[in-house]
Amino acid sequence: NVIPQVSNRRDCEGMLLRTFPACMSGLIIRMLHKQPPGGRTIQVIHRDPGRYKHFKKQVYGKEEQEDMLFVGRSMYETDRIPAEWLVPASCMVDQVWVPSDFNRKTFAAAGIPE
Fold first, then answer.
1. Comparing C-alpha atoms, which of 76, 66, 79 is closest to residue 96?
2. pLDDT by position in tens, the chain (length 114)
3. Residues contacting 105, CB < 8 A, separation 6+
4. Of 7, 24, 30, 51, which residue is most buried, by most CB within 10 angstroms?
5. Exposed e or buried b for every residue in 46-85, given b needs 16+ CB within 10 A?
6. DSSP-derived 3-state class of residue 102
7. What would the 3-class secondary structure string for 21-90 be?
């Protein structure tokens, strides 16, 4: 089982409702409210990829990180992303979630795995 965890559930829900399609928002919000039955914890990082390393280092120890699934939730409103985001978005999180097809194409064009 995979259990999501966020630092501010109310803010996360509001952001999800504003930026994701209703079918996805509902599923993610239901996941946010599940109680951990001993499964892995999902940490959704609502920051640009350039800040993933800082967040993980500030919040979790190395041993804690090994048992977690990290999701980078990001968007960028141009047709390119900064080169310094490539490594964090490709290697520091297990998945990157973006709110639109435009963002998906932008991140994919930069080499971030879909």
1. 76
2. 344 444 455 556 666 666 666 666 666 666 666 655 556 677 788 888 888 888 877 777 766 677 777 888 887 788 899 999 888 888 888 888 888 889 899 999 998 887
3. none
4. 51
5. bebbebbeebbeeebeeeeeeebbbbbbbbbeeeebeeeb
6. helix
7. CHHHHHHHHHHHCCCCCCCEEEEEECCCHHHHHHHHHHHCCHHHHHCEEEEEECCCCCCCCCHHHHHHHH
Tokens of residue 35, six digits: 């109680």
Residue 42 — φ and ψ, nearest 5°? -100, 130
Reported as a single tens digit per residue, the pLDDT across 84-94 is: 988 888 888 88
